[in-house]
Amino acid sequence: MSEVKREGYKFCQDICIPCYETDASFYLKPASFMDMAQEIAYWAAQELGFGYDDLHVHHTAWVLSRMHFHFANPPKWRDNVTLYTWHKGPSGLFYLRDFYLKDGEGNRLVTCTSSWVVIDERTRRLVRPEEMNHLLSVDGDVDSAIAEEAPKVMMPRGSEPVPAGEHTVVYSDVDIIGHTNNARYMVWAMDCLPYEVVSGRRIRDAYVNFNKETTPGTVVQLYRLETEEDGRMVQFVEGHVDGKSVFCVKLVF
């Protein structure tokens, strides 16, 4: 990856897709896109004065709450692409950030919108620091990679999801603020599905909700449901701890 550059209100980074971020068909994995998006989001926020270091001195931290990304034409191993991100300002308790991944001809390969919250690192409760509002406001109109905010995701009412195993949060799941990194939930979700589904079909849209943090040693019970919407296969994966949802993923193939 190259250094992060600024173009107006957007930040961008040139990337050559590495082999270890792709699947057996050479396509970029959904969780790998989430990792890339998280990293550039940290850099962009830092440049604007509300990054990890700025919040950490006040014992607060950014946490991703919702995400929706659309794979128009996912890149493959060795493709040269450019990842863009920009802050879109507050919306209720959320702070919005969008992304897109472009090829060398300017075609948008992946588009994404995300909703973030700020938590107190000591109490793990949501906070809305008023002193940040002047930094987080947006002057004038900004672009939207996806017009609608990332939606709430739930198992369909009346459905009967089937058990899909369990996962204990371990060292490789945990991020810099001590809880499960957002991309790991996508890894768990994809690993719940039959290999012939995830290897033989391309994901069109992925929706993720992070409902409650999990930490090392937490045992997450996983459930899966297959359904159909508008002629497309849809897979839901939800994780429970003590009977309560900690995350829910919706994948449209």
Largest sheet features:
12 strands, antiparallel
Mean pLDDT: 94
Globular, elongated, flat, extended or rod-shaped: what is the shape? globular
- Supply the number of helical segments: 5
Strand content: 35-45%
- Uncertain stretches: none
User: Can you write the helix and strand succession as a string?
Assistant: EEHHEEEEEHEHHEEEE
| SS-based class | alpha+beta
State the distance separating the first and last CA atoms.
Answer: 29 Å
Helix content: 10-25%
Count of DSSP E strands? Answer: 12
What Rg do the Cα atoms give? 18 Å
Key words describing this protein structure:
single chain; 253 residues; twelve-stranded antiparallel β-sheet
